[in-house]
């Protein structure tokens, strides 16, 4: 199969107020026949350049009301226009432009890039199959400076890690969920709600937090919480790439370091991933 | 001379509330004698490992009330402790952790990384010279979707660029300013004010903006505005790495594209830089 | 499941001659019980730190005769030592250090990093299943400046690409093949042979090359050639991330550009991927 | 001032044999008047787009016999064509394409990218001043697995580093030298000779090497050796970004690690830089 990536800006105005969406679109196609590979016969091949034109034309005609709707539009276009397409997947990712505010007043045409978690989505369809929609957030970096530990793990002669009941929990989250065969969802609103759920499940109550006995359990809490709060989500996958921090031993420098100065441990870094669905 | 980079986390608590600063420190030293280079005589060399220990001990003892104060502390320590140091520069850069909020309530120990412009500073000193402090912001990405043009430029037989009076202005800013021989400044407060000035000068009034006739003029406006509003700033340098966007020509696709769909032009990209001081 | 990454150097000497292998190892484990996720019960969890220790101890004890043998050693260790492990995968990637030569004479202890295609491998095993070994090369950048075209493709109203019979073929290759349940293979020797096959199939005969009617066909040629020459390979996957180059139109600059000056087209870039096995 | 970056490919043929140069060119200009910044008056501004056209036209007309000659051509063009240019600098960097060989036979049109040190150069000129040419190599990663130590350094209460007489010396080199006001040099030939000198000075004799008492001394040896062997070089700057490797302590794992397994220390990493000229 083939894929390609297109990056572009979609502007629109309402009166004098300007709106902007900058996206990166990656379209994957698989054709019904492998003749392009086996025989070098290009007669069914849809060139990258044509795919780019289609994506830009769809953006021009339909706008981008939500990333998900745009991905659905792309899938629909390829499935209905090209009978040689056996499978199509459209991945859409957003550049996180946010409207500037001056003393709380929104600016009509100025924006700042705020990459505190990148929104993306995917729509995919096999010929004669349902259109499935996924959405997600990636590059979301979170930290808890307390209320995290790791104890009671398996031990043998290769174990050197001490048990810790007050460590730093820090990492980069990748979360991706499926809406199943979705109907008329308000994708923008649901996405914002899920983002809030992830942050809330990670952090716990603002006044005291919630103890995390492991990265794995935190991953599971996020999944359980999203599934309980957002009925549109069918399955949720969470990957957490942790950064470990070690409390610097300052004894030989004549000081007691009471978890005040820590250094990141760059290798090994760990990662834990889990996919959870409804029964 | 030599330099090295240390990354670490400094935590502190006030009651149950946790505070976090994650910084990357780069210390440059030049010694009074080049004998380490010429003769392989290491007797005056301060190993990287020792420099790391000193930075961590200073963080432990003094905390990091501001990046600038911490950079000053490092310079002072090296100048007063090691008579073989002829010059010291300390660069300190912040990982932009922000406290999480749930429904407007700040969380006592959870943070999110929001890289919408990275704060950094530098302090430098030659033996017997003044201690000079710089501060700055980098990786600040801004966009204006209108109120920008480029006309009346020099033309000859190699000119192919059309004049434009309504283009996108987009780029990544690097701003660095000098406080001179600073006294007891509230560095955190001044930095926030300068950041606001940069955004305001870039965007213009929220209801209408301000026309930019060129990247160069916008750079100059930012500098003039900061110098006029913040008396502590002596000199300000601004570098703007532009991203150009071209309106996609859709005529051969049978459509009129009224600055609705644009693609970034990755090469050539331009950059303009200017340094401006007080008379 | 969880994974983690460890980077280290393994040295050994034969007389005064030094040998070096620098590798990045990533171990994935899945446990038989999800209790760590669901209940926060860590009693079966093997900490990242323990995994790191095991990998380093295996490197110390066994050395790294080939990446593949080392990956097999890791899988075997985890499967035989920990009954709670349901699945293990070991990915091993090499830093491409090559011995320095001075006037053709190899240096006994000096090396240069030459990243012209990175060697990697994977071994994986489910409990009670066979141990499967993969190997591959990635980040291999190749270019043909002629003998490549793209004609006869599907056209409709969104087509703007002209047919071309003499374009640049350039891209980054990722190739990964399976050895099946391998026995006592000379992995180093086979890997080198496959790399040569890839280059030969890409380039064609040195005096004239071989015409490529599409990226897809070139991908297929590489696969067919490797399968025909290297009986140990069961299945081979090739992904090609193309860079397109456009001949610069210099008509409005008064010049005829006969495919002498070309610029890379950064978006859209395309990619084609194919997996081919034996019947 | 302003600068911009252009990336392109220059092909030429001799009979059926194809030659390729892919370069990234960055041109910096400073104008005689700051009116573009202060007044938004663009009448002297040479747009990025025009600069790109000029660079491409020069590549088309002159070819790229050497990076240095091409940089000189660019400087000459801007100085003689535009009287408003006060200063011009042209930086040219090469994508390291190498001709493919099959069984020792060079291929007529196929190339592989081999980034084992990137060649670059700079030419700069002020109006009425001389044209100065620099050349260099960057991203050159070298390692010695023995014959390196670090002893006899300055010690105080913050010292924790032990003395070592047999460590790994590993790092990334950046070397840049000046040819002064150069005449008709064979830049390609000189560059290759300097690269060999750097490798030889780093490694020492192939059968035994040469002991390095510090990174600083190795930097100096390289500089001295290049200056002694290549009379065209006036001044040479070398920056070495070291990677430290620690021997893993395996005592608590019941093993003796005789410098067989080492891990890279990612922070702090050090860097040492020195500039050396002729008397």
Care to describe what's here?
Four copies of one chain form a homotetramer. The first copy, chain A, has 279 residues and is of the alpha+beta class. Chain A folds into two domains: 2-129, Urate Oxidase (Roll); 138-277, Roll (Urate Oxidase), CATH 3.10.270.10. Chain A has helices spanning 35-38, 48-62, 67-81, 187-203, 215-229, and strands at 2-14, 17-31, 85-95, 97-102, 105-113, 118-126, 131-144, 169-178, 235-242, 244-247, 261-265, 269-277. In chain A, the strands form three sheets. An eight-stranded antiparallel β-sheet of chain A has the order 1-2-3-6-7-8-9-12, with helices on one face. In chain A, strands 4-5 form a two-stranded antiparallel ribbon. In chain A, helix 4 (187-203) packs antiparallel against helix 5 (215-229). Chain A starts with a strand and ends with a strand. The mean pLDDT of chain A is 93. Chains A, B, C, D: It catalyses: urate + O2 + H2O = 5-hydroxyisourate + H2O2. Chains A, B, C, D: Catalyzes the oxidation of uric acid to 5-hydroxyisourate, which is further processed to form (S)-allantoin. Chains A, B, C, D: One of its GO terms (biological process) is urate catabolic process. Chains A, B, C, D: Pathway: Purine metabolism; urate degradation; (S)-allantoin from urate: step 1/3. Chains A, B, C, D: 5-hydroxyisourate binds at residues 48-49, 150, 167, 216, 242.
Describe the SSE topology:
The structure is a homotetramer of 279-residue chains.
Chain A (H helix, E strand, L loop, with lengths): L1 E13 L2 E15 L3 H4 L9 H15 L4 H15 L3 E11 L1 E6 L2 E9 L4 E9 L4 E14 L24 E10 L8 H17 L11 H15 L5 E8 L1 E4 L13 E5 L3 E9 L2
Antiparallel strand pairs in A: 1-2, 2-3, 3-6, 4-5, 6-7, 7-8, 8-9, 9-12, 10-11
């Amino acid at each position: 199969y083939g894929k390609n990536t297109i990056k572009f800006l979609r502007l629109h105005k309402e009166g004098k107020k300007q709106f902007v969406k900058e996206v990166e679109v990656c379209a994957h196609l698989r054709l019904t026949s492998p003749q392009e590979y086996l025989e070098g016969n290009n007669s069914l091949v849809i060139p990258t350049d044509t795919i780019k034109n289609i994506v830009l034309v769809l953006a021009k005609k339909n706008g981008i009301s939500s990333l998900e709707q745009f991905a659905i539009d792309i899938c629909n276009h390829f499935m209905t226009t090209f009978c040689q397409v056996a499978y199509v997947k459209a991945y859409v990712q957003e550049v996180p432009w946010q409207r500037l505010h001056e003393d709380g007043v929104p600016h009509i045409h100025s924006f700042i890039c705020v990459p505190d978690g990148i929104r993306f989505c995917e729509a995919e369809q096999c010929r004669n199959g349902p259109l499935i929609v996924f959405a997600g957030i990636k590059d979301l970096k979170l930290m808890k400076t307390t209320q995290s530990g790791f104890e009671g793990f398996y031990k043998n002669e290769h174990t050197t890690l001490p048990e810790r009941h007050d460590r730093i929990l820090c990492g980069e989250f990748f979360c991706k969920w499926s809406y199943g065969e979705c109907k008329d969802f308000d994708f923008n609103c649901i996405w914002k709600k899920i983002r809030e759920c992830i942050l809330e499940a990670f952090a716990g109550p603002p006044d005291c937090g919630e103890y995390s006995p492991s990265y794995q359990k935190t991953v599971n809490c996020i999944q359980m919480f999203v599934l309980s709060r957002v009925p549109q989500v069918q399955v949720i996958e969470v990957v957490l790439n942790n950064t470990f921090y070690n409390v610097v031993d300052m004894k030989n420098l004549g000081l007691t370091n009471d978890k005040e100065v820590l250094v990141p441990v760059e290798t090994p870094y760990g990662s834990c991933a889990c996919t959870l669905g409804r029964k």
